[in-house]
Design brief:
One of its GO terms (molecular function) is UDP-galactopyranose mutase activity. InterPro entries: UDP-GALP_mutase, UDP-GalPyranose_mutase_C. The chain is α/β, with parallel strands linked by helices and 369 residues long. The chain has two domains: 188 residues, NAD(P)-binding Rossmann-like Domain (Rossmann fold); 72 residues, no CATH class. Helix content is 36%, strand content 21%. It has 13 helices and 17 strands. The strands form four sheets. It has a seven-stranded mixed beta sheet. Helix 1 packs parallel to helix 13. The longest helix has 26 residues. The chain is globular. The chain starts with a strand and ends with a helix.
């Protein structure tokens, strides 16, 4: 008898497995795939270069709790991610900053001057409801067309005017020359990769891992008291209210017989090409190798569900599933797919740590009754 059957071996499931095992619970962790670590899975390709199978995963967080927790299972390599955009035939920093504006417009503005410059370009939108509203409010139509509209259409197959404001609100506009993609307090990569971190997370003797396993095939035959589900919430309920839409990505990997390919970890292509971006893994991992590996990303509607699509009508469908989820006895739904929310890795870890505390409190309350 297991105390918990956990479905999905990404961050959401693995963190809960580790915490619950540490608290004395017996845990069975299952995943349909043939590996642990979910979408964060990394491995050495045939040329010996460490790559991320499901696209670049760059760790950053403002949460001391999350960083300290993951530090139990890995050492870190300091890394601040930088992104360039291929715009008007040149590479400029993304998010838009002082350097971006000066390069694009052939100016030499100061920080104060660029504030006035952007204010002169901005188009006031009230209320701010969509991703288009966010960008036009901040930088106006011209920069919106150069940086956001094409990229968003490729990524989501929707115009920014059709997407929730939260999508482009994730990308700030800066009036200084800070060219880091993230400004979080903690920015680092696991020294030996994510898969090694997950291996250490799952070493507890009370955790059993079954890969290549659909939980539906074993849920009736392996006894367990409670279920934690991190898969797509609509699939759990057999799509009763219809399929929730997700975006997926087709990845095209290349190994090149040269030491480096591009000046930063990622280069975005907002208006040109069918792919959204190219990432070169050695920038992220710090690996020294005489060859280099890159990945092109082609967003698609088909394939593994990666990104819940933030739109009002999708949220309304999810809310119907959430009501069903809340009625399930001894079943917990968590993670990006289980709660249909576009979380970063650190947010998923924080969510799992919070759910763990809730479960333990329920246990204690049950004992006291």
């Amino acid at each position: 008898m297991y105390d918990f059957l956990i479905v999905g071996c990404g961050f959401a499931g693995a963190v809960l497995a580790e915490r619950l095992a540490d608290a004395g619970k017996r845990v069975l962790l299952v995943d349909k795939r043939d590996h642990i670590a979910g979408n964060a899975y990394d491995y050495y390709n045939k040329d010996g270069i460490l790559i991320h199978k499901y696209g670049p995963h760059i760790f950053h967080t403002n949460s001391e709790e999350v960083f300290k927790y993951l530090s139990l299972f890995t050492e870190w390599r300091p890394y601040e991610h930088r992104v360039l955009g291929s715009v008007d035939g040149q590479l400029v920093p993304i998010p838009i900053n002082l350097t971006t504006i000066n390069k694009l417009y052939g100016r030499s503005l100061t920080s104060d001057e660029v504030k006035d410059f952007l204010a002169s370009k901005a188009e006031e939108r009230r209320p701010v409801l969509t991703s288009e509203d966010v960008v036009l409010n901040a930088v106006g139509k011209e920069l919106y067309e150069k940086f956001f509209r094409g990229y968003t259409r490729k990524q989501w197959d929707l115009d920014p005017s059709e997407l929730d404001a939260s999508v482009t609100a994730r990308v700030p506009t800066r009036t200084n020359s800070d060219d880091r993609y993230f400004t979080d307090t903690y920015q680092a990569m696991p020294t030996n990769g994510y898969t090694e971190m997950f291996k250490k997370m799952l070493t507890h003797k009370s955790i059993h891992v079954m890969l290549n396993t659909d939980y539906r095939d074993i849920t009736e035959i392996i006894p367990h008291k409670k279920l934690i589900y991190t898969g797509p919430v609509d699939a759990f309920f057999d799509y009763r209210f219809g399929k929730l839409p997700y975006r997926s990505i087709n990845f095209r990997f290349e190994t090149l017989d040269r030491e480096n390919y591009q000046p930063t970890g990622t280069v975005n292509y907002p208006t040109s090409n069918l792919y959204t971006r190219i990432t070169e893994f050695k920038h992220l991992t710090g690996q020294t190798h005489h060859k280099t590996a890159i990945v092109y990303e082609y967003p698609t509607a088909e394939g593994d569900p990666y990104y819940p699509i933030p739109r009002k009508e999708n949220q309304e469908v999810y809310n119907q599933y959430r009501k069903l989820a809340e009625e399930e006895k001894d079943v917990y739904f968590t993670g990006r797919l289980g709660t249909y929310k576009y979380y970063n890795m650190d947010q998923v870890v924080a969510q799992s740590l919070a759910l763990f505390r809730k479960i333990i409190k329920e246990d204690l309350d049950g004992l006291q009754q």
